[in-house]
UniProtKB/TrEMBL annotation:
The lineage of its organism: Bacteria, Bacillati, Cyanobacteriota, Cyanophyceae, Chroococcidiopsidales. GO terms for cellular component: plasma membrane. Its main location: membrane. Keywords: ATP-binding, Cell membrane, Membrane, Metal-binding, Nucleotide-binding, Transmembrane, Transmembrane helix. It comes from the Bacteria. PANTHER family: CADMIUM/ZINC-TRANSPORTING ATPASE HMA2-RELATED (PTHR48085), CADMIUM_ZINC-TRANSPORTING ATPASE HMA4-RELATED (PTHR48085:SF5). It is a multi-pass membrane protein. This is Heavy metal translocating P-type ATPase.
Amino acid sequence: MDCQVIHSTEGRLRIRVPWIADNSEYTDKLNWLLESLNFVTSIRINPAARSLIVTYETHLVSETIAEAELLDRIQRFGNADGSTDLILPETKPLDRPQVNEWEQLGLPAIALGLAFVAAPLEIPPLIIGAAIASAAVPWFSRATESLVVNRQPNVDLLDSLWMTFHTLNGQFVAPSLKTALVGVRRTLRGMSGEEKERQFQQLLNGSQQLVWVERDGQEQQIAYQEVVAGDRVIVYPGDVIPVDGQILQGTALIDERHLTGEPQPVVATAGEDVCASARLLEGKLCIQAKRTGYNTRVGLAFQLLQAEPVYDTQIGTQQAEFAKSAVVPTIFLGASIFALTGTYGPAITPFQLDFGSGIQIAMPTAFLGALTAAARHGVYIRSGRVLELLAQVDTIVFDRTGTLTQGNAVVAVHTTDPSISPTEVLKLAATAEASLNHPVATAIVYAAETQGIQLLECETWDYFAGMGIACQIDGQEILVGGDRLLQQHHVDVSCLQPEIDASTDSYIYVAKNGQVIGAIFYTDFLRPESADIIATLQQLQIEIYVVTEDNPKVANAVATQLGMTPNCVHAHATSQNKAELVQALCHHGKTVAFVGDGINEAAALSFADVSISFASSSDIEAETADVVLLDRDLAGIVEAIALAKRAMEIVYQNAAIVIVPNLAVVTGGIFFGLNPIVNVVTNNFTAFLAEFFNSTRPLLRTRRTRETREQGAEELQVQRGDYQLPITNYQLPMMKKLAQVET
C-alpha cells in the first residue's frame, strides 16, 4: 500500500507511511529530506503509528501542492530497507526552531486592532482593508484552490465573499473579528492536540527509564524498552506501572486516574489485572507482564490519537457532501434577497451560515475522544466508522467456543474396547490437533503433555473447517472430528451411541483405518458473566444468536444455561454456516456484530458489520477484528456499545449546538438587521463549546468493581468444583490454569 494523506487541516498534514519502521538512520534521513523543503516548518515522525505530521507555511504553498510534493518525495525516498533513488548529502538534519502556534495570530490581531481604532484615529480604509485581506489569505487560498483544482466552490468561498463585502462596505470589525476568533480556535486546537500527545507519550514511557524485573530468580534493572511479555516486573511505591499485566504477589494502593479518570485510588492484590500508567502509592507488587509498550491500553490510546482514524464516518461524509451542495444555493439565496429588498446587509448574511468548520471539527473530536476512552478502558475500537456502526448494532452472533466459554476445556477419554488404551486414543488425537490453536485442540494437547505422552508426526494432514482432521500417522489413516467428518468417510459410529446419548458433553471421535477406537468428551465451562451479558444485551433490544459446532443436545443445554430460546442457538455450525447466518441477517436489514476468536470464523467476521474478538497476540494493531477486547471479559462488549451510543449522542448534540444558534442569528440578520458581529461571536462561541467542552466530556463513568470480579471468581470456583464428568473411564487432570485458580 502506498503512502497517503489521512488527515489535513490548514497548514498541517498527517501522512500514513506503511514502511516507516523503528530505524533511526532511515527516520533521520527521511526527516532531513522533508525538512529541506522550503515551505515545511516542522516534521514529527511516529514509527509506531506508521505516520508523520508535517506543518507548513500556508502563504508559501497551497494544500494541494504541499501534499503532492511531500508524497512524491516520500515515494521516491523508498522503503526503510534503504532502497532509494535519491542521493542524500552528508549533512545533519536541519535544526528548525519549534513552531509557536500563537505567532500565527499576528495578522488577525493587527487587523482587529486597526478595525477598533479606525474611527478615532482616522486610519485610511485602504490600510485596514489590506490588513483584513492579509489575515483572510487562508480563506481566499482555499476557495481559489477549490475552484481551480477541484472545479467546485466550497464553504471558504462563502466566508471569503462575506468578509470581502463587509470590508468593502466599511464594516471592518466583523470580518477582522472572524479571522481572529477562528485563529484562536485553531491555535488552541493545535496546542491541545500536542499537549494530549505529550501527556500520552509521558504516560507510555513512564516516569522512570529503568524498570526492575525478576529474571533467573534475581532482581535486576533493565531499560523500559527491553521489558517483554512474560517478564516478572517489580514495582515500588512512587513508580509508574510500566506494563499491562496480572499481579502475582503483593497488595498495593494504586492511582489509575490518568487511565480511567477515577480520582479515588484503588486496592489491588494478587490475581487482579493492572495497567500501564497507574502509579503505585503504597505497597510493592510483582506483576507478570501481558502487554508492553504500544500494546498496552495507554499505548493503543496514544496510537489512536496519533493516527486519528475518525474521518471515514458516514455522518461525516454526509455532512461534507451537504456542505458542498449548499454553497451555490446559498449564493443564489443572497442574490435573491438583494434583488427583492435592495438591502446590502441582509443579502450577504446567509453567507455566514456554518456549513463546515464548527461541525466538521467537533464531530471528529467526539469520535477521537470516544476511541481513546474505549482503549483506556480495555476496548480497542479500530476507527470512527466502526464506532458509528457499533452504535447501530441490533443483532449479535456469538460463536460459543472460546467466547461465551472460557476456552479451558476439561477432557475425558472413552474407548470402544477395553483392549484399546486411552493413552493411544489421546496420543493420536493430540498428534492430529497439535498444529491447531482451537481451545479444544489446546486442551487435548495439554492433557497429553501432562501425562508425559510423546506426540508422533503426521505424514499427511488435512483440516476440514468445523468438522475435524484427516491425517496419516505411522502409515495409518486417522480421523479426529465430529459426526459429519466420519459420515463423509463412511465410518460407523453406532458403537458409542449409548454413551453419547447419556452425556450432555461435547465430543469428538478418534478413528483408525475406518474404525472408531474411542471418543474424547470435553466440557468448556461458560464464562461466569456470559448469561448476565446475554440478558443485558437483550434488555437493550439486541437480538442474540449463538452458533456452535456441537450437536443439538449440547446446543439446547447451552440455550438453557444462557436463558435463550433453542431456535436462537444453531448446532453443527460449520464456518460456512456461520458466514451464511451473518449474511442472511445483514440481508434482512440488520446491523450485525459477530463475536468470535478468529478460528474457523474468518468468513463470518468479514461479512459482519462489526467483528469482535478477544486480544490473542502481542501486536494488538495486527488483529483483524474491528473491536478487540483487551481483557477476556464479555462485559467489554456492553461497555463498547454503551460508549458508541453515547459518542453518537454527543455528535448529534454538537450539530445542534452549532446549527440552531447559527440559524437563529442568520435569520435575525436577514429579517431584523442583526449586527454581523453578533453572528461572528455566536458562530465561534458555539463551535468552541462543541469542540472543547461537549466533545471532551467523560464517556465512561462506571467501572466494574473489585467485588464483582471476586464474586465471579468464587462462582467459577464453585462451578468447577461441583462439576463431575458423566463418563469417567479415563479422567485427565484439568489444565494448569484451572488448577492454579482452584488452589
